[in-house]
Amino acid sequence: MNRRHCAAAAITLVCALALLTAPVQAMAAPVPEPSPTATSSASPKKSLEEVREEIDTLYRKAGAATDAYNLAEEQSKKQSSEIVRLTKSIADGRARIAELKDRAGAQAREQYRNGGLPPGAQLMLSGNPDLFMDGINQARQGQQATKGMLTELEQAQEDLETYTKDANLNLEKIEAGRVKQAKAKKSIDGQIAAAEKLESQLAKEERARLLQLEKDAASTAQAAWLSSGALKDINREASSAGKQAVAFATAQIGKPYVWGAEGPGSYDCSGLTSQAWAAAKQPIPRTSQEQWRQLPRIDIEDMRPGDLIIYHSDASHVGMYVGDGSIVHAPRPGRDVTLTGAGSMQILGVVRPDK
């Protein structure tokens, strides 16, 4: 019993010594949670003008993405049509090759039946002097026909290989176009959603003021453009086709902007201008960027109704000049086709579809 007491006392002493000699871990005092006012301040509310500029920027980016989407769609349609043409050419080529092979087979069978000699050679060997010259001519004609058929067969096979290769390339382009369209669509949706979210956060009165700010900004820009003397010498009459295009475009006033739309119930900016000129029997590229790239450019002082004014440094917007310093255009989502000042936006240049 004494031994047990001694052992227990010894164990207690060892534990006590261990606690005393163990390194002490520092414990920080709990830090009180900072009050919101002490650590951060609420971000200042944007002015309505700043919101307008931000919304305008988002819609411009969406417009550029819309052009990328529309161009990919247009290229996809062209490539699909080309594939249809190539598929027909491939089918025709295969049929031609089959026909030539049948003809070659028929000639081979004929020679086999005649001991491997063509009809002309048999006549030459017939011993009939009267038929000898005819036999020579027939032999030559047979050789030329055979040679021509073989050449045609080789060409048909080469053409078939080219058609097949081109069709495969077009399929690859279509697939790449679909990927491009999907990326553009995602960008469009994101930009428009962000702009709509900003606008939806405004009170009714603020949205009305926002619309007025848009009009005021356009009027200010138009006034500056007019005061520069831009319209001084612009008094030309529209061409016959231009009058038709203007009549079509102005008839769409009041219809809503919808990205990618080409009518008849809604339009995006280049959908309106391309359809207006299509109505004038003058097809033009589908997108504002391609209209700027492909159509003949003219000086502003030479502008006449029906010409297209391309806006912004990235050619992301287009309107049709209708005279008196005005354009008809489809502005952006949430707005309708309307008349506005030609100088209300940053002008990149002017193109003429029927030059």
Task: Report on this structure.
With 355 residues, this protein is α+β, with helices and mostly antiparallel strands. Helix content is 63%, strand content 7%. A six-stranded antiparallel beta sheet has the order 1-6-2-3-4-5. A hairpin with an 8-residue loop joins β4 (326-329) and β5. α7 (240-251) crosses α8 (269-279). The longest helix has 72 residues, at 129-200. The termini are far apart.
Secondary-structure topology with pairs:
Layout: H1 2-21, H2 36-39, H3 48-113, H4 119-124, H5 129-200, H6 204-227, H7 240-251, H8 269-279, H9 288-294, E1 297-298, E2 308-311, E3 317-323, E4 326-329, E5 338-341, E6 347-351
Antiparallel strand pairs: 1-6, 2-3, 2-6, 3-4, 4-5
Helix pairs in contact: 3-5, 3-6, 7-8
Mean pLDDT: 76
Work out the strand percent.
5-15%
The outline comes out as elongated
- What string gives the helices and strands in order? HHHHHHHHHEEEEEE
Number of helices: 9
* Major sheet summary line: 6 strands, antiparallel
Strand line-up of the largest beta sheet: 1-6-2-3-4-5
Structural class: alpha+beta
Oligomer: single chain
Uncertain segments are 1-43
Rg for CA atoms: 40 Å
How many runs of DSSP E, i.e. beta strands?
6
User: How far is the first residue's CA from the last residue's CA?
Assistant: 121 Å
Percentage of helical residues?
Answer: 55-70%
